[in-house]
Amino acid sequence: MGSILVVCSGNICRSPVAEGLLRRALEWRFGARAPRVTSAGTIAIDGHAPSEGSVIAAAERGVDIGHHRARFLTPALIAEADLSLCMAGEHREEIAVLAPEAADRAFTLKELVRLLERTAGADAVGPDALADRVAVAARDRAAVGARNPLDEDIADPLGMPIDTYRAVTWELAEWTDRLVVGLFGSIPVAAEGR
Questions:
Q1: Whole domain around residue 123: which residue ranges?
Q2: Of 51, 107, 145, 184, which one is least surrounded by beta carbons within 10 A?
């Protein structure tokens, strides 16, 4: 089945929204076989509720994150994940410090999508292919690199107006949709109406 850990700073804005969007997309596609999606933050305070702006913006996209509670990122959480999906480069670097053995499984969202889109095949694959697809992306990153330091991070909307939360949520929706296709391939048209 596999698991994906979404990581940001406080685990109250970006990562809960990305977690909700990604979980919905994977459950729609795979049902009960979907990879498990969780989140944590590098400076999170355990138990904190998500920011109001994130709850509103996610709800406008049909995702309820009101029940979410922040979790502090630990080596154990990292070790459990087949993929650590980071909202910014600093989060990927923190994972490399906390769990060096998991550094090859840690990517920013944009970095991973770009790597996968470079190597993605046309055939759709099942959720069991998660670890294999992450390994391929890690090899590609090591061989040729994929970082775009000028556009690697998803901006943190904390403390900003609601329209900033909406813009970040829109960006997360676009990138998570591309991620699902990059990891598992396009869904054949005949399967879309299932």
A1: 3-192
A2: 145
Q: Which of 108, 81, 80, 115 is nearest to 94 (CA)?
A: 108
For the chain, the domain total comes to 1
- The span from the CA of 106 to the CA of 112, in Å, is 9
Q: Which stretch of DSSP H or E encloses residue 110? A: helix 109-119
Cut 0.70: pTM above it? yes
Cα(98)–Cα(92) distance, integer angstroms:
10
Q: What is the CATH number of the domain that holds 64?
A: 3.40.50.2300
Residue holding tokens 């061989």? Answer: 143
Residue at token pair 């410090």: 97
Model confidence over 95-133: pLDDT tens digits? 999 999 999 999 999 999 999 998 765 567 888 889 999
> Which residues touch 70 (CB under 8 Å, ≥6 apart)?
10, 11, 12, 16, 40, 41, 44, 45, 46, 47, 48, 49, 50
Distance CA 69, CA 14 (A): 13
112-121 in b/e burial notation, b at 16+ Cβ within 10 A? bbbbbeeebe
Judged by phi (left if over 0) then psi (alpha if -120 to 50, else beta), residue 47 lies in: left
